[in-house]
Amino acid sequence: MSQVETHREVPHRGLITLSIMLATVMQVLDTTIANVALPSMVGDLGASTDTINWVLTSYIVAAAIMTPVTGWLADRFGRKELFLGSVVGFVIFSMLCGIATSLNEMVLFRLLQGVFGAAIVPLSQTFLLDINPRERHGQAMAIWGAGIMVGPIIGPTLGGWLTESFNWRWVFFINLPIGIAAFLGMAAYLPSIERRLRGFDFFGFAMLSLGVGALQLMLDRGGEMDWFSSAEIWIELGLAITGFWVFIVHMLTSRAPFIDPRIFLDRNFATGLVFIFVIGVILLASLALLPPMLSTIFGYPTITVGVVMAPRGVGTMISMLVVGRIVHRMDARILVVVGLILTAQSLYTMAGFSPQMDSWLIISSGVVQGLGLGLVFVPLSTVAFATLEARYRTDATALFSLVRNIGSSIGISIVSAMLVRNTQINHAELSAFINPFDPNLWAASPAAASGDPAALAQIDGLVNIQALMISYVDDFKLMMLVTLLALPLVFLLRRPKYAPAGDSAPAAME
Asked: Averaged over 484-499, what is the pLDDT?
């Protein structure tokens, strides 16, 4: 199978898709499944509550640095060979993570796991686009998007169940059977792609890696280091700006840059990058906020948190499966607008959360948000690549994944920083009204008004909950505004006119 699209000659398309999605879900799950296991790792690995976070940081930074190089590696070694090698390496280092006996071992193995896992998601998207004709790209992206978006939702729940029922090490051991099944299926049926040798722009790769790595470190460690009051964060910000600036200048002036700048001349793809950045912010930022909110304010155990959040994933899967069948029959831009409006509506509902509500409002808003994000993700993933030349596809899917991950990191960092800052401000403002002369305090707790320490501590706990709830509401309002501000970008997208089945000619544009 060559670089041009020859879809009629691809046998076993269903088995290929199943194998690809097994590998994709395995990799995506690992970005969130280990989070809930961190407290259990502390004692076994001899780590502290601060240093254990490097288990997450090492994986995120390594994956971010290696994602952009996927296109070159695929051209140099072959897409199929790179995909199979990535799955094997990912599983091997998953097992080594599961048997790690010290923090240093765990961080090293997680870093290498991130290195091998970086190519899995962009290659899975590339292959699904390659093996399907253009009129079936919507269905292919629906299946791919379901794994990408539902994986992070079920990851914490699955990780919590494995940790409580067995041991934190099973968070990594579970990758073995999934990886073996994915490898066997892909080794047997995945078509080979003609290799395309091209030079490696080491300087461009180094500058992009510097920018991406420093940015990810800054975003991941910012909250722990109190952001810009720390010299480390300023250094990482400087390195990130320097790396990205030099990379952009080099890309525009070099004869053979690491990433061909002509890829950004495709208007749909460039607009799609902006959109997927926004989706990354909304999806994982809300997922980062809800579990601690449910456990801290509402007192839900880990399993209950997973049950309450599961309908969000169901909503996403339903909308993706539906839109995958209709995206080539109607204007995808309409679907994106409807999806953004539904997402904004769900965040508006979430901005009305209170400590006294039941779980129904959380479930219903989650379903609406899942439906909305699914309506955006599938047509966006389809239209963004509709007019792009096939030879740019692997580089483009790598950039697509990278921008989504950076959006997620930025979104999580912003809402987390706002949460901490606003909680302190809200606590100070609310407690300012509590004094011995307040008749409401006397009515609610005479003991606290009289100065009883135990009663005052109880009142302070109530103030903390209210201050925290207001801060969560402020974050939801911010994400709603970000969603609404993305609406005008729809007008930059152009609708593809799909060619008849079996026609490999590029789609025309309206």
From this structure: 73
Q: Encode burial over 20-45: b for 16+ CB neighbours within 10 A, e otherwise.
A: bbbbbbbbbbbbbbbbbbbebbeeeb
**Residue 1 in this model has a pLDDT that exceeds 60:** no
Is pLDDT of 502 > 70? no
pLDDT over 70 for what percent of the chain? 87
What is the total count of domains within the chain?
A: 3
Phi-psi region of 239 (alpha: psi -120 to 50; beta: other; left: phi over 0): alpha
Q: Which domain holds residue 424?
A: 264-510
b/e code 386-425 from CB counts within 10 Å (16+ = b):
bbbebebbbbbbbbbbbbbbbbbbbbbbbbbeebeebbee
Contact call for residues 13 and 132 (beta carbons, < 8 A): yes
Choose one of 196, 218, 243: the last residue of a domain: 196
SS (HEC) of 153-211: HHHHHHHHHHHHHCCCCHHHHCHHHHHHHHHHHHHHHCCCCCCCCCCCCHHHHHHHHHH
DSSP state for residue 510 in the 8-state scheme: -
Domain with 99 in it: what CATH number? 1.20.1250.20
Nearest CA to 22 out of 171, 178, 153 is that of 178
